[in-house]
Structure formats: C-alpha cells, structure tokens
Design brief:
Elements lengths: L3 H16 L11 H30 L5 H31 L1 H5 L1 H20 L2 H12 L5 H7 L2 H10 L5 H10 L14 E2 L13 E7 L4 H4 L2 H11 L4 E7 L9 H10 L6 E3 L4 H5 L7 E5 L5 E6 L4 H12 L20 E2 L17 E5 L11 E8 L4 E3 L4 E17 L4 E5 L3 E5 L3 E20 L5 E7 L1
Parallel strand pairs: 2-3, 3-4
Antiparallel strand pairs: 1-4, 2-5, 5-6, 7-15, 8-9, 9-10, 9-11, 10-15, 11-14, 11-15, 12-13, 12-14
Helix pairs in contact: 2-3
C-alpha cells in the first residue's frame, strides 16, 4: 500500500478476522490447498480464463481424445509452472539479495503507484490511444512474439483439433497432392436456383465452387465475374455452384439469401451451408474462396479472396478447350487502410469507449479526443453477440477511417433512419450491406452516424 496508515488499518482488520478462525496449522491434506487454489483462481481467471476457455472449446468441437487432453493439459501447465517458479524462486531471490529485503516496502509502494496509474489509464481509455499510437508507429512491434504462436506446427495442430471427423483426411489430401478429389458437398439448408446437386454426378463437367456470403463486400465484388462466366461457359460444360456459408445469423434465412441472389442477378446454383459442414470439409477459413474442379472431380486450382480473375478464366478455358476473348469487366479499385470492424461482443475488440467483449446494455459517451481506426458509440446500446442495437433515438457512431469507400452491414426489424456525416439520410431495414460513403480516392476522414430512430442492428463496418 502507498499510505502506511491505511495499510496498518487493513492489516489490523484482517488480523482480527483471522483470530476468530480456529487454528488449522496442524491440519494435513489437500483441503487447504484446494481452498487457496480456488481463491487464486478467482484472481487469475480474467487473465488466463478466456485463453483456456478458447482451447477447451476448440478441443471439444471434435471428439474427446488424447490430443484434446494433451492440449488442455499443456495450457494448464503453462499457467501452473510459472506460479510454481515464482513461489519457490521468489523466496530464494529475497534470501540471496539483502537489498530487496531491506527495500521491500518501497518496492511494494512503487508497484502500487504503477497499478493505480494503469487503472486510471484504462478508466479513461488512454490505453486505447497508446495501443493505436504504437500500432501506427511500429506496426510490426509484436510480430516477433506472434510468430512464436503463429507457425506451421501450431497451425497444423489447431487444424487437426478444429475439425469434423473427416477434415484432417481432406485437408491432408489438399496439401499433400497436386490434384486431390474434391470432397462431396454437404447441404446445410436449401438449394436455390437448382435441384440438389452432387459432385459425383458432375463427372465430365468443369465445376467452379465459390464459397460466399451475401453481405461480404469481398464476395459481392466477385459476383459480376461469376455471373459473366456462368452465362458465357455454362453451355460448354461449366457448372458454377455457390456455397453460401453465413457469417451472421440473419444470413441463414433462406428468404434473405434468395432476395440477395436476385438483387445481385445470380442465376447459378447456390447451396446453403448453414452448419459449416462443407466449409469444414474443405478446411476453409475465408470469404470468398474458389475451387476449380476438372472433369475428373479433382481440385486443380484454389484461390483465396478477390482478384486473379483473368488467371481463373484462362484455366476455365483451358479445361473446356475454349479459345475465346476473356471477360472485359473492369476490376474494382480497392483502397482501404482501415480494418473490418465488428460491433457484436464476440469480435468488437476495436470498441474504444466501452467494455469490449461484454454482452448487455451499456451507456456510451464519445470522448473529445478519438483515435484512428477505433470505434466509438454514443448513447444507450444493447450489445449482443453479433451486433449492437441502439435503445433510443439520437444514438451516435463515430469511426476515424482511411478508405475510398465505407460500408455497413446492418438491419432493423421496424426500419430506422440514419444520418451520415450530418447530411445524407439512409433508411435501414433489410439486413444487408449498405454503402455509406464513396470518394474518388482513399482519404482520411471521420465517419459520424446519427441514428434517428431506435432499433438499428449494426453488425460491422467494411472498407474498400
């Protein structure tokens, strides 16, 4: 404690409490250790709890086997061993270093000051500004530590745990062979624009599988190319199948999907993958992703994300033995310096003026000073797992960005009006992607949204 008088009073209070407890010094066994361990667990949980919970969740998505047990045990040991080292090594360090013993009180006071200052920085969100400044000035300052966790051994191990029963076999086939047989599609909903299809029935055809979701801006930018190829090559033996794997809950609704496909002019077959079974069968982690299958049903091309449209079309022509002019669609310019930003508690790590990762109602006040690429809310908001919803009119959203275009995935059951940067008014009802701002080139600006009615459900900002 910083103030000795306060420390003395607290020690006196606890000593009086301890004097009323029967003497248990001679008691042996594990009971006391369990009680102490439980007490320490309450303090330690905020630090290690989320990590351990994530590992347990990962492990339990598959079967409870030796691999899951070993991974969970490794994280438990990672927590226990440092505590053991501190317990045994700390006392020896004090015994061997008299200076530490003589100045123990001053050291405690020094750390107390540090803790109070740190708590104040967190309370007033100064820590967010420090994080933003460090990331802007030293974007790779943590890459060395991150690389220890993000390596091929770790990724391969997680891939084996985060899987259905047949993913490891499929993933190893994709990584180990030049042209593996494509896994069969596993429907998780309805087929749209077609009767149910099986890859095994499409031998002799060239098949392009496109993993998509209709509110994803990256997917939307690929739709014109898919539509063009479907119209251009379907009579020559090309089959395009969209695998619609939803990012958000509302994208599971088949009527929402049908309307979106109609809006984008998509006429090729689309299969709902609401349970992520096809996604996992292919070991996928990205929207969009394309797999090109030859006439034998083997994956001959695998592309993640946007782009490489000319390369993809040339491969389609090669498989179809067609020699025609390539599509002349102008590729959309993408200039974004801001990351995709989520509002729901499951992923709202960029929320700057409230408690991130917390479900429930919060009252937000937008500070006078705001940081680039951080999300600020104003007013009363109900933070759910996937989205945030304002509870009253006049709520605000502020986000300093760098981009040429700004989009928002949102919806509203009753319909709401929002005002963007004090001028343009947009009506939000259908759950989909809305374009908020567009410039001729990338700029640094501040997005300010005033929600004129209660009930907006906003999922994410995306930039392009």
């Amino acid at each position: 404690m910083i103030v000795p008088q306060i420390q003395a009073k607290i020690e006196h209070m606890f000593s009086r409490f301890a004097s009323r407890v029967p003497n248990q010094q001679k008691r042996e066994g594990f009971g006391g250790g369990i009680i102490v361990g439980f007490s320490l667990g309450l303090l330690w949980t905020p630090c290690v709890g989320p990590i351990l919970a994530s590992v347990i969740t990962l492990a339990l998505t598959g079967s409870v086997n030796a691999a899951a047990f070993i991974i969970t045990l490794a994280y438990a040991l990672g927590t226990a061993l440092p505590m053991l080292a501190i317990m045994y090594g700390g006392r020896q360090l004090l015994n061997r270093t008299p200076w530490l013993t003589r100045n123990l009180g001053n050291i405690q006071k020094g750390f107390g000051v540090v803790m109070i200052i740190t708590a104040g920085l967190i309370l007033f969100n100064v820590d967010r500004g420090i994080q933003s400044y460090l990331l802007e000035k030293f974007p790779n300052y943590g890459s060395g530590l991150t690389s220890l966790e993000d390596n091929s051994i770790v990724r391969d191990s997680l891939d084996k745990i985060d899987s259905d029963g047949d993913k490891s076999e499929v993933q190893s086939a994709i990584e180990g062979e030049d042209y593996p047989i494509a896994p069969e599609l596993i429907v998780g909903g309805e087929w749209i624009n077609s009767e149910p299809l099986k890859l095994s029935d499409l031998r002799g055809k060239v098949v392009l599988l496109d993993v998509m979701t209709y509110s994803c801006i990256n997917c939307i930018r690929t739709f014109p190319y898919l539509n063009d190829w479907y119209e251009k090559y379907s009579d020559d033996g090309l089959v395009i199948i969209g695998i619609h794997t939803p990012e958000f809950e509302f994208e599971k609704d088949v009527e929402n999907v049908k309307k979106a496909l109609d809006d984008f002019g998509i006429k090729f077959p689309v299969m709902q993958d609401n349970d992520y079974k096809t996604w996992r069968a292919y070991g996928n982690r990205y929207w969009p992703r394309k797999y090109l299958l030859n006439q034998e049903g083997r994956i001959v091309y695998d592309h993640i994300g946007e782009g490489k449209y000319e390369e993809t079309e040339k491969l389609i022509q090669e498989l179809l033995e067609k020699d025609v002019a390539l599509s002349s669609i102008e590729e959309e310019s993408v200039k974004a310096g801001s990351p995709e930003t989520y509002f729901g508690a499951s992923r709202n790590s960029l929320l700057a003026n409230g408690e991130a990762r917390k479900i429930g109602v919060q009252n937000f006040t937008i500070p006078e000073t705001i940081d680039k690429n951080m999300l600020y809310l104003g007013g009363d908001w109900d933070i759910r797992n996937e989205y945030a919803s304002n509870l009253s009119a006049g709520a605000k959203i502020v986000f300093p960005y760098t981009s040429m275009k700004v989009f928002m995935v949102a919806g509203s059951e009753e319909g709401v009006r929002i005002k963007v940067n004090g001028s343009e008014e947009i009506y939000i009802k259908e759950e989909k992607l809305y374009k908020l701002l567009e410039w001729d080139d990338a700029i640094e600006g501040v997005l300010e949204i005033e929600v004129l009615d209660p009930g907006l459900e906003v999922f994410t900002f995306t930039f392009g």
